[in-house]
TrEMBL record:
Domain of life: Eukaryota
Membrane-spanning segments: 12-37
Keyword Transmembrane helix carried by entry: yes
Region feature Disordered, mapped onto this chain: 618-648
Gene3D superfamilies, sorted: Cytochrome P450
Entry similarity comment: Belongs to the cytochrome P450 family.
Name listed for the protein in its UniProt record: Cytochrome P450
Keyword Transmembrane (UniProt): yes
Residues annotated for heme binding in this entry: C494
Protein's organism: Polytomella parva
GO molecular function, one term: iron ion binding
Length: 680
């Protein structure tokens, strides 16, 4: 057995003192080294400022919660969340969306570079591969080799010079539906009772668009059995489209999975039976060299979605706007323009016709005038369509950084694009560069960009069909047009943009001629201040209130300890509280992202956070103030009930939707009485 030598007590004291002094000396040395390094960095920073050398930083990362990042906040508030991120973090910011990061670019010059950069810098294919494969089931290894051929065939099919026959068919079928001369209109006959205007227009646009592009045989005699069954499955598919494109597993959407399976089965049977032969879609599939038969139904499904997702929404928003009483002058101006164009065409036909010429068919001159106005970019109806698309479109444009990018707002000689300037760098006059790593997903949000005063002026959020075209750069990246970024840019811009705007113009003109759309007024203004749901008297017992307070405080403290205040705020959207879709009561325009009451709400939330941290008394004080404010608001509303009973406005849009044209977030009821000859 080994016996350890005993250490004298006085030696233990010496060892402790020695260890303590050693730690002090080490800490002092480390501190001196750090100070020297810090001083050198400070001196270098001063020299960089004097020489105006650039600052290299990654794009700001928006805080979030573990694993999910900002998924919940983005899902809850959609474009309002993106707008809040831009206001807080600047023109370049990064969201953590589960298993991938996405950097949003908002500065106008950056947007130009985003669309015009070569594939060696910012590439399109990897960003859209997972989208087409997850949503439409188009495998990248078989579809993308023919992707360029598909785009080329679409552009050749839908160029303005070849749209005359298709446009005439759109007008004829639109008239037939509204006059109840079409099998598709049996379930939507004119009724004196108010009906949901969006549902009516959506079904109408679906029937007309499918019959024009996919053929009458498929629509009325296809394997789906009825038009209603086909439309129902398609709208289930479209409503789950956005979530299906995300990284979340499809098992969370059983209805969407079933709807896609049914649609693909029906399209496959119709394709094999030749029901698409001789139709624009059938010709497109046939003319696409190298397209395998096994993926043809999947591509037809993609074309079906593209033909409907934006057209239905844009048609609704313009039709609803022109039905507002305050838009009567503009509505009359459009009809007068149509009548003048029709008279001009009839006069020209009369001068050029001979005795042997066949008699014109019913509505021939009216349809010709509608097509002429739809093709004329300077006509009022065309400008209204473009402005509506500008304000209502939301499709996020995505790309991937093919290599590391260095981007600046200050250096005009930098070939890699220009982005926003941080306030501190603007103050000291130094170029600030953002470093984007290779493989990072990049995104542009047109809905936000179209409300940017740097792009559209001080009235960017207002409906103004007389505004000048948006000009981004020399026009090579984004076409000069009022619609702006609605159809994307660069070589991958939407090939059906010309047909889409003409179709919307023709449909709206047809509706104005055939139906007297009378909107049901809303009983409340659209800009309603956000208020939490208050407890009922039964729920307000002291016990339940105590449990609620304890639970709220517990989970808040737990989240704050795990993720911090910023993680709760930006990861869950827990203290943002955006009043989704607060629009002007007058209905003349879509408002910006936030109504005036949001600033007050933000101050209240900051106070509430302080109350949770400082104790229950502060929170109860804030709740008491809130209750008093609500009581005052209730009395005010009661006093103004008569004044606010009939408010004609546009419905609030559903801001959480991130793909396609906005849909209404509340029912828009209207009567659609047939117009008499005297009215026309």
């Amino acid at each position: 057995m080994t016996v350890l030598p005993r250490v004298a007590p006085q030696n233990v004291v010496y060892y402790v003192i020695f260890a303590f002094l050693s730690l002090i000396i080490i800490a002092t040395v480390i501190g001196i080294v750090q100070n020297v390094i810090s001083d050198r960095k400070l001196e270098q920073k001063k020299r960089d400022i004097a020489q105006k050398k650039p600052v290299l930083n990654p794009a700001p990362q928006v805080p979030g919660v573990p694993i999910l990042g900002n998924v919940i906040g983005l899902a809850r508030y959609g474009v309002s969340f993106l707008g809040a991120c831009r206001e807080t973090w600047g023109d370049v910011f990064t969201l953590n969306l589960g298993n991938q990061k996405m950097t949003f670019l908002c500065e106008p010059k950056m947007i130009e570079h985003f669309f015009k950069a070569p594939d060696s810098e910012i590439t399109f294919r990897p960003a859209v591969e997972q989208f087409t494969q997850r949503v439409f089931g188009l495998p990248s290894q078989t579809f993308f080799p023919v992707h360029s051929a598909v785009l080329s065939a679409l552009r050749n099919l839908l160029v303005p010079g070849k749209l005359a026959d298709i446009s005439e068919k759109v007008a004829s079928l639109a008239f037939a539906f509204l006059r109840n001369d079409s099998p598709s209109s049996s379930s939507h006959v004119a009724s004196p009772a108010p009906q949901n205007l969006f549902h009516f227009i959506r079904h109408w646009v679906f029937c007309v668009g499918v019959e024009v592009l996919f053929g009458s045989e498929f629509l009325h005699k296809g394997p789906h059995g009825s038009v209603a069954a086909l439309a129902a499955e398609f709208w289930i598919f479209e409503e789950g489209f956005e979530l299906a494109a995300s990284p979340l597993p499809h098992l969370l959407q059983p209805r969407w999975i079933r709807a896609r399976a049914r649609l693909l089965t029906w399209l496959s049977h119709a394709y094999k039976d030749g029901q698409f032969d001789g139709t624009p879609v059938g010709d497109l599939v046939k003319d696409t060299e190298g397209l395998a038969d096994e993926i043809a139904p999947n591509m037809i499904l993609a074309l079906l979605w593209a033909s409907q997702a934006n057209t239905a929404g844009a048609t609704f928003w313009l039709a609803a706007r022109l039905a507002l009483p305050q838009e009567a002058a503009r509505r009359r101006q459009i009809l007068d323009e149509l009548a003048a164009r029709k008279a001009l065409i009839e006069r020209e036909d009369k001068e050029n016709s001979s005795s042997s010429s066949p008699s014109p068919t019913k509505d021939a001159s009216t349809i010709a005038a509608m097509i002429s106005l739809a093709n004329d970019q300077k006509s009022l109806i065309s400008r209204c369509v473009s402005e509506t698309v500008r304000l209502a479109v939301q499709s996020i444009d995505v790309r991937i950084a093919a290599r590391e990018l260095v981007l600046s707002a200050d250096d005009p000689n930098l070939s890699h694009g220009t982005y926003g300037v941080r306030p501190d760098t603007a103050r000291i006059g130094r170029p600030h560069y953002y470093v984007i790593p290779a493989g990072r997903m990049l995104a542009v949000c047109p809905y936000d960009a179209h409300r940017d005063e740097r792009m559209y002026g001080t009235d960017a959020a207002q409906f103004n069909p007389d505004r000048a075209d948006l000009k981004v750069g020399n026009g090579s990246a984004v076409m000069h047009s009022v619609a702006g970024l609605a159809y994307g840019g660069g070589p991958y811009r939407c090939p059906g943009r010309f047909f889409a705007e003409r179709e919307v113009a023709i449909l709206v003109l047809t509706l104005m001629l055939e139906r007297d759309v009378s909107l049901t007024p809303f009983s409340t203004p659209s800009a309603i201040p956000y208020r939490r749901r208050r407890l009922t008297p039964q729920e307000s017992s002291s016990l339940l209130r105590s449990i609620k307070s304890l639970g709220k405080e517990f989970f808040f403290d737990l989240g704050k300890g795990l993720w911090g205040i910023s993680g709760i705020r930006w990861g869950l959207g827990a203290t943002l509280h955006f009043p989704l879709g607060a629009w002007p009561a007058a209905g003349h325009a879509f408002a910006g992202h936030y109504p005036p009451e949001v600033a007050a709400r933000e101050e209240l939330e900051v106070a509430e956070v302080a109350g949770v941290e400082n104790g229950a008394k502060e929170r109860e004080k804030i709740e008491k103030i809130e209750e008093e404010e609500e009581e005052e608001e209730r009395k005010k509303r009661q006093g103004q009930e008569q004044a606010t009973r009939k408010i004609y406005r546009l419905p609030r849009p559903e801001l959480r939707k991130l793909v396609g044209v906005k849909v209404p977030g509340e029912a828009c009821m209207a009567t659609l009485a047939p117009r008499t000859k005297k009215d026309k």
